[in-house]
Description:
Elements: H1 20-23, H2 29-32, E1 39-40, H3 52-64, H4 74-87, E2 97-100, H5 103-114, E3 120-123, H6 130-137, E4 141-144, H7 155-165, E5 172-177, H8 189-202, E6 205-209, E7 235-238, E8 252-256, H9 261-265, H10 277-289, H11 291-315, E9 320-321, E10 329-333, H12 343-351, E11 353-354, E12 356-357, E13 368-372, H13 377-389
Helix pairs in contact: 3-10, 4-10, 5-6, 7-8, 11-13, 12-13
Amino acid sequence: xxxIPHETSGEPNPLRTLTLDxxxxxxxxxxxxxxxxxxPLWVAEMDVPLAEPVVHALTEALALGDTGYPAGTGYAEAxxxxxxxxxxxxxxxxxxxAIVPDVMLGVVxxxxxxxxxxxxxxxxxxxxxxxxxxxxxxxxxxxxxxLGADLRIDLDTLDETFRRATxxxxxxxxxxxxxxxxxxxxxxxxxxxxxxxxADRHGVRVVADEIHAPITAGGVDFVPYLSVPGGESxxxxxxxxxxxxxxxxxxxxxxxxxxxxxxxxxxxxxxxHGPSHLGIIAHSAALRDGTAWLDAxxxxxxxxxxxxxxxxxxxxPAITYRPGEATYLAWLDCRALGxxxxxxxxxxxxxxxxxxxGIPFGTGGAxxxxxxxxxxxxxxxxxxxxxxxxxx
Length: 392
């Protein structure tokens, strides 16, 4: 695949636009879950204004009263165009897509298609906590295949875990987080092809959560799972929500590989009633016309990763941080600080900075925190200052 790299957009860095006072006017989870004296650097919301093409599309829809039910394939067409230009992937066939309410509810629906109650779902821990919550709520069993010490997929561990998951001929699925949350690891084409080969050998079906796909660091290529050899039987969930900060405008797409088209065709029709029509309008506009804004964001995130690394090296050198290849999340190993399994609790109580605790991310999460880098350099600086003050 030939990919067009990040471009210099000429747009201002959206991470430097909003003041703290302005952000505290927001009513979403990030800014309302804690008292005003707490600096929130936790949940995956970005401190950015919306991309202008998204604002224009929503404003136009509201002016028309276009607030009914979703219809058509505009979202899938926009994503296919983005995938071809951005990732050099022309294999996203619109006829093998379906709109779903959001990525995690889409994951649930895909798992319902290919597994049954009591079957196993393999995950690479530490991983996004809703992987555990949603899977267990739907009466499936989570089996962990922990990442290696390098925070990449350990293929030997995955091989053994697939074997255990399919004991006695049970069906099993692998819920792949790509790019990986919280580590920011971007799986290579070789790694993904090896995953596909293992899945085929053991009869395991792959469902890929690719919600962070547009958010890669400079010089890093995202590879869609469905594009690699052996990925034809996979199912993917994609969305513009993370890259353009549209979580409150619900919409996502399920995408099937050629050999999984019949599975996706069994998706109940009522699932398509869940996405927001305004969400689909917003996501489609972002993918079609919001790439200049995205490139400005990605450049700002590259700066913030470097800033975070420098600040930690200066003020908290005992914390281990490997800047991620993707996402806007920093996975910090705080075990050398001696703060126990939940350093996020200490940073909150003593430093008044809110971070995600590593414990809900499963095996490998204890002693870690996740920090949201999608904010201004000033707030990252203040956040690290508060973390350091918590140790005084």
